[in-house]
Amino acid sequence: MRRAGVALGAVVRSALLAWGGVIAASLLLAACGASGVPTSPASSVPSDSGAARDERDCLWLLDSRINTLFPDRYAQYWVAALVIPPGGAVTIDGEFPAARYISFNLYDEQLAPIDALTDVEIVPAAGSTNPFVEAADRNASPRAYQLRLIAAVPPADTAQRAPNTLYSARTLGPVSVPANLAVLFYRRYVPDVGREAAALPRIRFELADGRSISGPAACGALDRLSFAIPDLAALPDPVADLPVNTAAFVDLLWLKFFSAVSSQGNRVFATPLGPAVYETIGSPTEGGGGFASNRDNRYIYASISRQLGPVVALHGRFPSAPVTSDGRSPMPGGSMRYWSICTNDGNTLAVFSCLYDEQLRTDVAGRGIIVVSRDGDRPDNATEACGISWLDWGAADNAVLIYRHMLPQPEAVFPQAIQYIPGPPGQFEASVMGEYFPYGHHMSRAEFEALGCPVDARRLPAVVTPPPTAG
Q1: pLDDT (tens digit, 9 = 90+) per residue, 387-408?
Q2: Which of 130, 245, 327, 456 places its Cα 20 to 30 Å from the Cα of 92?
Q3: Taking the alpha carbons of 370, 371, 375, 378 in that order, is the dihedral positive or negative?
Q4: Across-strand partners of 392?
Q5: Are β-strands 388-392 and 367-373 bridged in parallel, bridged antiparallel, or unpaired?
Q6: What is the per-residue pLDDT across 326-383, written as a single tens digit (0 to 9) for each?
Q7: Positive or negative CA dihedral for 145, 406, 66, 109?
């Protein structure tokens, strides 16, 4: 049994904020000239010393082994809770990895996004190459960069932003104010095969008086803090696994994600409460994201339930994306940078399994069929030989499918991207996505096997389930 997502998110936030407090104490001691905290002259060149390696490794508090907040199986995540020195900055030195995508996202204490830098926005160091920009050599060397994180309100005119700078601020009513506490996520998607072990960026604190300090003293508390981060998916919750469907429909109801609050309404959409909940919290037309959502991604999600059938068949046309895992250079083009579909536990916010663009079996027009089931329920014809891509349902009877689009072409070029779906959720997904809409239907194993081999998608239902309304 598993703990509900709200409580789980609180555990993660508490751990991050506690670690931020440790760093804050270390910075305060350093600013007062306390002994025991290493200091060094400010430098833009990463050090090869043991202290620098220690700082690089342990200031990144959490990594992808913490399975929560709906991660993608083909992305790697590292998280740091940082306190920006008053009048100073946090400096991040790194090298561009060999991967499909990287980004740095800032979040507030509720894990709502604040600011971000995407790989193509990062200016490389002098003499270096950014391999993510169009037509760049993905194997170029050197490939260094440096970022700065400051407590400041970003300029209203984006053209006035300082290069390679992340701005930490909070909105209080109509006013934005600088914020010295920041939660930083570093993401790396689909590393090239054989080049997965890229070094992590190194973090330094730049004080207002010009000194540069690293964090080994603060890192000494990491082992103690680690005990406060339990195996979140194993914590008990007496209601999480009740075999009752409250959210799923036979033909999937796809909803665009706008905020953590509005998405929780979906959990009762298949009950008599559905219309009232949809009309109150479940039908926003805008939102600030949540669950540490990535600025470069947009999402639609749908509930699935074994109470309605142990097999879900998805079909539609899927966007093109560059193939990069084999190391080809320069990066090829596509309708978007990346897409994936994942099965998730809506209670723990954990991911079970994912399928991403390079793995999908499609015909010449980009159309594909995805079967979602447990291994024991997998139809005999749910194989590549029959034109099928298979996705593991996971352990939960009631699960959530999340379909993410990353960095699509402009709307004039590829208007079917999730990014261009307006609210309210459930109203425009099918009309905007058109032939790229992922029709989904619950069925039995025998029903799917009766489709034969190869499977003709035209024999699968193509029904759009509307959101619950009082009418």
Answers
A1: 999 999 998 899 999 999 999 9
A2: 327
A3: negative
A4: 373
A5: parallel
A6: 999 998 889 999 999 999 988 777 889 999 999 999 886 778 999 999 999 999 999 9
A7: positive
